[in-house]
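Task card 7
Instruction: Convert sequence to structure tokens.
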Amino acid sequence: MELTNDHIKNRLVQKFGDEVANFTEPYGMLTFEVPKELNLKVLQFLYDDPELRFQFLTDLQAVHYPDNKGKELAVVYHLHNIRDNVRIRFKIYTAIEKPDVYTATQLYACANWMERETYDFFGVNFVGHPNLKRILNVDEMDYFPMRKEYPLEDQTRVDKDDEMFGR
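Output:
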């Protein structure tokens, strides 16, 4: 039996009901959202189900939505079923004041470095992570540089004046 987006969606709804929502298919990739409290249950189900077999974590990253009150940070998981060559994406949202999300390192070993990078740049606290510390930035940084909290460049700098570049 071919593993289709409709079949994956039906299996998820059958297991989790209304907890999985906002199904879309941008560029043919099934995408959906779940509450952050269910991220491990959904990951475990997608991994263990004998029909779905999403046993490879392709990518894990965050996105900052500063205008989305109470859901400012999204953690995005990309999973791959290697046997059937099917990929899916799902998102969880968390408030920036308490960005706690359960770690996926027990299920996917590769989540270790991806979660550390996501913590380093966005400040998502992966609860239960074995070694959650900065991976690329210096330990002394007291901010998370990929959040959209800072202007892209200082507008008062004279060396950035367009006249200096012939514009």
